[in-house]
Design goal:
Layout lengths: L17 E3 L5 E11 L4 E9 L2 E6 L3 E4 L4 E3 L3 H5 L9 E4 L9 H9 L4 E3 L2
Parallel strand pairs: 1-6
Antiparallel strand pairs: 1-2, 2-3, 2-7, 3-4, 5-6, 7-8
């Protein structure tokens, strides 16, 4: 058995997950996932860094796992990331689907997304 983190979809990405440059150095943590709702397409992630909130475009998100997000950015490129624009921001609520109702059970069973759009 291996100790490698499990690859996951962006819909399962948890806030607080470390975000790394291409060489594996952490430069921030996931704050939110951005989605183009009209076409249900992953747009990128919002990252909390020591320099503030930054945006990583989906084209630069390489690997998403249970333990980290690895980007294709160098450390220098990561330091120059822009702030997020007006794309819809989604945040996860860990309390979703934690109850004992039938809806909660189906939510857990079928992996219903727990990301909620910010207003």
């Amino acid at each position: 058995m291996t100790d490698e983190p499990t690859p996951i979809a962006y819909t399962a990405l948890e806030p607080g997950t470390p975000v790394q440059s291409s060489d594996g150095q952490q430069f921030g943590t996931v704050a939110a996932v951005l989605v183009v709702e009209e076409v249900s397409v992953f747009d990128g992630i919002v990252v909390e860094t020591s320099s503030g909130t930054r945006f990583v475009d989906a084209d630069h998100v390489g690997t998403i796992t249970t333990a980290y997000v690895r980007t294709s950015l160098t450390a220098d490129e990561a330091a120059q990331l822009p702030e997020p624009d007006d794309s819809p921001v989604f945040r996860a609520d860990a309390r979703d689907d934690t109850g004992t109702s039938l809806a909660d059970r189906f939510g857990r069973m079928f992996g219903r997304g727990t990301w909620k759009r910010e207003q």
